[in-house]
Amino acid sequence: MKEGEIQSIDKTISEINAAAESVADALKGRLQAILNHFENGNASIMARKTDVAPSVILNYFPDSSKPTTPSFKVIAKILIAYPDVSAEWLLRGEGDMLLTPVLPEEEKEQIRYKAENSVLKQLLKAREEQITDLRYIVSILKQGS
């Protein structure tokens, strides 16, 4: 290889490394956003949910004394522990952080009430059927006595 080609390759490698460092820094910022959004900045809770040591989680953030970049295994654990987080957003920074929109508390409450109402209606219907069956059994028993 010629000297010029080696220098060109070295420059390309340097550019790739710089780009990778930039991507890693952005990823760490997105991890901080997840931590703040879901756990109010409490790394211990995230550590428990992801089965990753708290010290390892803390090393992903800029103020760490030992800053590191998360492994694929840790990223996978985070995506499993936080299924509402978009993998596309976490890995590439594209799209919204959350797969589903965040609903106002009032809408969440209405959805819960509707779900509870539906369950209660089903339970009531089952009880009414049981009462009907018991009335039938009582009428048969009265006839037999």
Task: Give a short overview.
This protein has 145 residues and is an all-alpha fold.
SS class: mainly alpha
Strand content: under 5%
Number of domains: 2
- Element order: H for helix, E for strand: HHHHHH
Give an account of the 3D structure:
The chain starts with a helix and ends with a helix. It has helices at residues 3-39, 43-50, 54-58, 72-81, 87-92, 105-144. The protein has two domains: 1-100, no CATH class; 103-145. It is mostly helical and 145 residues long. The model has no long low-confidence stretch (mean pLDDT 85). Helices cover 73% and strands 0% of the residues.
Write the layout of secondary structure elements.
Elements: H1 3-39, H2 43-50, H3 54-58, H4 72-81, H5 87-92, H6 105-144
What labels would you give this structure?
145 residues; mainly alpha; 6 helices; 73% helix; rod-shaped
